[in-house]
Predict the 3D structure of the following.
Amino acid sequence: MSIAWGSLLVVCAVALAVGVAVVALVAFALVGLSARVAEPAGGPNDGAPPAMSPAAGTAIAVICLVAVAAIVAYGLYVIVA
């Protein structure tokens, strides 16, 4: 019995990349959702226009979370199939 080190390295690299991608997508979704929260008066950005509109933030969050759901669904499909 021998170990296919090349294949093991590919699996580790893909797992690391997908893990980082999922975490980054969830983080971007949280940043997008934070655009919906009004900043309190007197904060560091008092009087400044918001960085993004609530609609754009919600759209970004939805796109990121749909991408995460697709990645998870594909991973489950690969495990089951």
